[in-house]
């Protein structure tokens, strides 16, 4: 992965992009320079709103609706000035010489056509290959990207293929015309760690093999460290610094970059279970559950959550983490087993629970966008639970809302009358937390609360949750697939796979070997800041023993499996 | 001759000016108009050119009027509304202007109209003169006054019909989306049954049973009462959560329905009440379907789940969580349905089953004066044009609202 000294492919000079809001044009990108050589991979990182995706789109000469590239900016792709070329000229480049891989492959593929038909569309359209040639080429690319069944997978529809495979299929599609430049816009953000690693390995290989230049946009530092030759850090539409990956990781110059690097340092001290025999706050006992007579989603799940402690439930998607939360909150009554609250059985269905029982157990959601009603003011979102459970009215209610806003570190006078769409992602998540707190619960389910947020913002949320736990003696059930989050906030860890608890215990024990092989797989799949991490891992494990393939290979009779399931 | 020279001089001057200042689209438009005018002048002579000039002038006038009206509204409205209005297209401003004019016409009809709607003041089909701006109809009544009264009658009926259809349909839709299951299925099948009967035939059937000139005041009052009780029951199903609240609620519903029926029958006469009810019943299934679909998308959101887990009742869910997020498409649908209802009433009046003479109404005015068409008079086209203008105007406004509501989703 050394920097290939070849000619310049993309040269962006003084790029300024404006967006239209409140009847004026506001600068989004404030003069960014970028030089990309042939075969070079550049990582663009920064928090959301930094303008990463906007720059990515601008590299194709494209400005999204409601934005415009300001005159005086220059985007030169292989000698062609994109800012002045006509729409037709730009269209001829896109797809054939510049390709784009979107964040959500599931949403970006057309569900009505087979993968391979979408794959061959560009080469046939540009008259680079005949349809059959293009299909053969597609199958070859699928093989190189190590998709299972390369000869057959292309003839499926997008919904018949898993998320990680779709993302690889989209990379293959981007490769179909052998472009000079591919723009990857957060290709692995929506994926699990175990799936992410497959996609990363595949993308890195193929970019290397065809000597394609790439712009890799992400907010995950560890990921970018694996992928990029050079890293450019952006903040609010301006460049903070740019350096080759090794140098950037070892010796960041700017304060902002250093703060990004330091994010993962937050850890809360581990607490231990009380020893005086108080019953656990929430106790899940041998729960089986399924959706309307379908297959069993949860299979004999049991764990305890003690007062004031954080239990992290980890596992990849489909492992039953969220379903467990639904059983505890009463949205999905279990088919077997029960949930105890302070030793007393909790009614299985939420409608059978009393107001006080409902109050005890609150929830914070992953997507703050859909968890807050966009047409209701903040004061009512937070005030409603206080009014509903405690019967507060008038001044008392307003005081309570102000108190809660203070608690989540938002200025009450400023946010009291706002609506959720006027807030940033992190602020919305804070409002979600305040809504849960307003009920004065003893237990909160946090369903992937940080996974939609940038690392800096996510860290702020974690610190806030930790502080609130100490002040209000709350218990958290922390659902996540991000092990870094687990490391920083959890007291106990429950690992789930295919609806079963495969391992559980205090955090310190869980992060020290020996592990259950599945835990081991999860742990080893978390990208680290070392730029050689992926290379080393692939050497150790072999390219075919990562991700889903590895998870399927776990031998149920393994000693460690027997040992840890006790 | 002078007109032709002036006409071409103006066009050429404008197109040269547009070309000089690099106004590409304006230039293309003006110059192609010049070329077309050349051909028209050869085929149609001076009258054709005059027609083009008048049409262009009217378009320009309408455009300027809409622009001025938009600026006027912007100046009057509050900050937030002003921002929305400023981004409104000219067509929407034109639509609002026409609606405004029709509303003024309807509300102040007795003050504006020079003669009464049933007053016979001259011979049948008298030509326009200083007293009668648009001439007289087949009985010698003033056409202009009748158009103004017609705005009042037709629009008021259409508005009432649409509002009732919306209250019934939207409430049922919201409830079906929230409750789901058996209730949802039953309501859906009822809606299917009503929708499966062609609307015009259904209306004719209902009107020939209850309506027309045979309509009895007591029948109409009872039907209104029944309608109100159905709507009330839906509200009750959403709001009530215990046996006691059902009993109290039922008493309130009966009382309110009774008062509602009395009030309505005192404002409208029996045949009009029947017409409104028929319209409400025919159009409510469409509203039901739309509302159910829109609310169905909202119900699955996490904030609804959060509210349910909090222990909120259906009434709060509908009122505070679902309804605010479904208003935009519902308002747009309201405008659209209003047009359909308006056209249905006009059509029924044209067939003689809608509003009863001598009450003025645009639809029946077209029919009554239809014979004049064969004499080359445009009189029957004036009420028809009024119907068309209002329909187009409402659609312009609705288009803008639809655009706005879809734009917000980004």
* Fraction in helix of chain A: 25-40%
End-to-end separation of chain A: 45 Å
Percent strand of chain A: 15-25%
Strand content of chain B: under 5%
Oligomeric organization of the protein chains: heterodimer
* Helix segment tally of chain A: 25
CATH topology heading of the domain at 143-215 and 269-407 in chain B: MetI-like fold
Helix content estimate of chain B = over 70%
Contiguous uncertain segments of 5+ residues of chain A: 559-566
Radius of gyration of chain B, rounded?
Answer: 26 Å
3D architecture notes:
The complex is a heterodimer of chains A (566) and B (410). Helix content of chain A is 39%, strand content 23%. Chain A has 566 residues and is α/β, with parallel strands linked by helices. Chain A has a domain at 282-397 and 426-512: 3-Layer(aba) Sandwich (Rossmann fold), CATH 3.40.50.300. In chain A, the strands form four sheets. A six-stranded mixed sheet of chain A has the order 7-8-9-3-10-11, sandwiched between helices. In chain A, strands 17-18-19-14-20-21 form a six-stranded mixed sheet, with helices on both faces. In chain A, strands 1, 2, 4, 5 and 6 form a five-stranded antiparallel sheet that branches. In chain A, strand 10 and strand 11 (238-244) form a beta hairpin. In chain A, helix 4 (115-125) packs across helix 5 (131-144) and helix 16 packs across helix 18. The model of chain A is unreliable at 559-566 (pLDDT under 50). Chain B has 410 residues and is mostly helical. Among the domains of chain B are: 2-65, no CATH class; 143-215 and 269-407, MetI-like fold (Orthogonal Bundle), CATH 1.10.3720. In chain B, 80% of the residues lie in helices and 0% in strands. Chain B has helices at residues 2-20, 24-76, 79-86, 90-107, 109-112, 143-179, 181-196, 199-210, 217-239, 243-267, 270-299, 302-310, 314-351, 362-368, 381-407. Classes of the chains: A alpha/beta (566), B mainly alpha (410). Chains A and B meet through helix 15 of A and helix 12 and helix 13 of B.
């Amino acid at each position: 992965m050394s920097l290939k000294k070849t000619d310049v492919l993309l040269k962006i000079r003084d790029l300024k992009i404006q967006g239209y809001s409140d009847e004026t044009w506001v600068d989004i990108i404030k003069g960014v320079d970028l030089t990309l050589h042939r075969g070079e991979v550049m990582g663009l990182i920064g928090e959301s709103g930094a303008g990463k995706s906007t720059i990515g789109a601008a590299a194709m000469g494209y400005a999204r609706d409601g934005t415009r590239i300001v005159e005086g900016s220059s985007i030169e792709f292989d000698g062609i000035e994109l800012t002045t070329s006509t729409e037709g000229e730009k269209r001829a480049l896109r797809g054939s010489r510049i390709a784009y891989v979107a964040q959500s492959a599931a949403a970006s593929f057309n569900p009505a056509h087979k993968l391979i038909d979408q794959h061959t569309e560009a080469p046939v359209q540009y008259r680079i290959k005949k349809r059959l040639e293009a299909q053969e080429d597609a199958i070859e690319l699928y093989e190189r990207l190590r998709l299972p069944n390369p000869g057959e997978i292309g003839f499926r529809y997008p919904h018949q293929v898993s998320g990680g495979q779709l993302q690889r299929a989209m990379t293959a599609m981007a490769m179909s015309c052998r472009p000079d430049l591919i723009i990857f816009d957060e290709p692995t953000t929506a994926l699990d760690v175990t799936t992410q690693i497959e996609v990363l390995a595949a993308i890195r290989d193929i970019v290397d093999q065809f000597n394609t230049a790439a712009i890799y946009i992400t907010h995950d530092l560890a990921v970018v460290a694996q992928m990029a030759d050079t890293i450019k850090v952006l903040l609010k539409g301006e460049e903070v610094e740019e350096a080759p990956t090794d140098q950037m990781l070892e010796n960041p110059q700017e304060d902002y970059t250093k703060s990004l690097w330091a994010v993962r340092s937050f850890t809360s001290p581990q607490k231990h279970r009380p020893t005086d025999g108080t019953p656990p706050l929430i106790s899940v006992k041998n729960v089986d559950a399924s959706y309307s007579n379908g297959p069993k989603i949860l299979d004999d799940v049991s764990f305890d959550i003690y007062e004031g402690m954080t239990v992290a439930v980890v596992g990849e998607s489909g492992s039953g983490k969220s379903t467990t939360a639904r059983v505890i909150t009463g949205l999905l009554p279990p088919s077997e087993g029960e949930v105890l609250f302070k030793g007393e059985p909790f009614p299985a269905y939420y409608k059978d629970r009393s107001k006080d029982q409902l109050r005890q157990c609150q929830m914070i959601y992953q997507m703050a966008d859909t968890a807050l009603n966009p047409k209701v003011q903040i004061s009512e979102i937070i005030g409603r639970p206080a009014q509903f459970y405690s019967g507060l009215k008038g001044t008392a209610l307003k005081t309570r809302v102000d108190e809660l806003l203070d608690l989540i570190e938002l200025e009450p006078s400023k946010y009291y009358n706002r609506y959720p769409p006027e807030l940033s992602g992190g602020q919305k998540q804070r409002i979600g937390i305040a809504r849960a707190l307003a009920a004065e619960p003893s237990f909160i389910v946090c369903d992937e609360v940080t996974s939609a947020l940038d690392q800096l913002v996510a860290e702020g949320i974690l610190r806030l949750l930790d502080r609130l736990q100490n002040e209000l003696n709350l218990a958290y059930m922390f659902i996540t697939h991000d092990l870094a989050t687990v490391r920083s906030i959890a007291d106990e860890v429950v690992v789930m796979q295919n609806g079963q608890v495969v391992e559980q215990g205090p955090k310190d024990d869980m992060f020290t070997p020996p592990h259950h092989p599945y835990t081991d797989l999860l742990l080893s799949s978390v990208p680290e800041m070392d730029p050689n991490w992926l290379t080393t891992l692939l050497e150790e494990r072999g390219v075919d023993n990562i991700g889903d393939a590895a998870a399927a290979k776990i031998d149920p009779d393994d000693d460690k499996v027997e040992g840890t399931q006790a | 001759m002078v007109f032709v020279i002036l006409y071409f001089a103006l066009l050429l001057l404008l197109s040269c000016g547009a070309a000089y200042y690099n106004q590409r689209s304006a230039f293309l438009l003006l110059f192609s108009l010049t070329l077309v005018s050349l051909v028209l002048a050869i085929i149609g002579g001076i009258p054709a050119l005059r027609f083009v000039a008048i049409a262009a002038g009217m378009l320009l006038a309408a455009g300027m009027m809409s622009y001025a009206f938009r600026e006027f509204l912007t100046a009057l409205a509050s900050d937030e509304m002003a921002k929305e209005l400023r981004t409104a297209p000219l067509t929407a401003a034109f639509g609002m202007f026409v609606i405004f004019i029709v509303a003024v016409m309807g509300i102040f009809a007795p003050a504006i109209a020079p003669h009464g709607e049933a007053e016979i003041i001259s011979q049948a089909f008298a030509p326009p003169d200083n007293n009668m701006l648009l001439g007289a109809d087949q009985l010698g009544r003033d056409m202009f006054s009748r158009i103004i009264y017609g705005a009042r009658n037709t629009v008021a009926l259409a508005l009432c019909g649409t509002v009732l259809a919306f209250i019934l349909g939207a409430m049922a839709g919201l409830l079906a989306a929230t409750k789901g299951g058996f209730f949802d299925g039953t309501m859906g099948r009822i809606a299917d049954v009503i929708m499966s009967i062609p609307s015009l035939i259904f209306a004719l059937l209902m009107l020939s049973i209850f309506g027309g000139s045979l309509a009895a005041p007591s029948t109409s009052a009872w039907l209104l009462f029944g309608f109100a009780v159905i709507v009330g029951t839906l509200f009750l199903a959403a709001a009530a959560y215990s046996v006691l609240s059902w009993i109290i609620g039922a008493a309130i519903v009966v009382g309110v329905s009774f008062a509602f029926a009395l009030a309505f029958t005192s404002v409208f006469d029996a045949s009009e009440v029947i017409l409104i009810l028929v319209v409400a019943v025919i159009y409510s299934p469409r509203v039901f379907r739309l509302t159910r679909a829109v609310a169905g998308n909202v119900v699955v959101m996490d904030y609804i789940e959060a509210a349910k887990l909090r222990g909120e009742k259906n009434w709060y869910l509908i009122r505070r969580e679902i309804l605010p997020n479904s208003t935009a498409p519902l308002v747009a649908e309201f405008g659209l349905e209003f047009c359909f209802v308006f056209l249905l009433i006009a059509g029924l009046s044209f067939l003689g089953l809608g509003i009863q003479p001598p009450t003025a109404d645009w639809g029946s005015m077209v029919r009554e004066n239809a014979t004049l068409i064969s004499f080359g008079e445009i009189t029957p086209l004036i009420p028809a044009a009024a119907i068309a203008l209002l329909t187009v105007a409402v659609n312009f406004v609705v288009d803008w609202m639809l655009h706005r509501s879809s734009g917000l989703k980004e």
